[in-house]
User: Fold this.
Amino acid sequence: MRDNQEEMFPVVDEDGNITGAATRGECHGGSKLLHPVVHLHVFNSRGELYLQRRPAWKDIQPGKWDTAVGGHVDLGECVADALKREVSEELGIVDFQPELLTQYVFESERERELVFVHKTIYDGEITPSAELDGGRFWTIDEIRENLGKGIFTPNFENEIKRVKLFN
Assistant:
């Protein structure tokens, strides 16, 4: 399995206004074309944070633990619809109440993303899809103990500091 390099993404400015379109391959190939993504941090009522494990076939950060849901906004799709689609596809969750926390520009050596960060509290069943290599709830202490050890994606580590998900 691998990502569809021809999948079309909107290209946006830093306010989220669409300025064009490009393929996944173009957006992830060093062009630095800014494209929108959605993230959802899923907490349970005990305050634990669900993380997904990225599968080995992913083109970016394979095998690392990452935000519960992360996905691209498709061309012609709004952020809210992309979030619902990604949460359903990745975790099988259809009934949740997202709260928008912030948006920011993330830049790596390969890409630039306009990240729309949400959180929710969810105690129902989670069914990770074949797109993921599983997932589980982590205590905040477990996450703190493993920061900086190469277990989590750099994006996740940067985001939890930026958004201050926990103190």
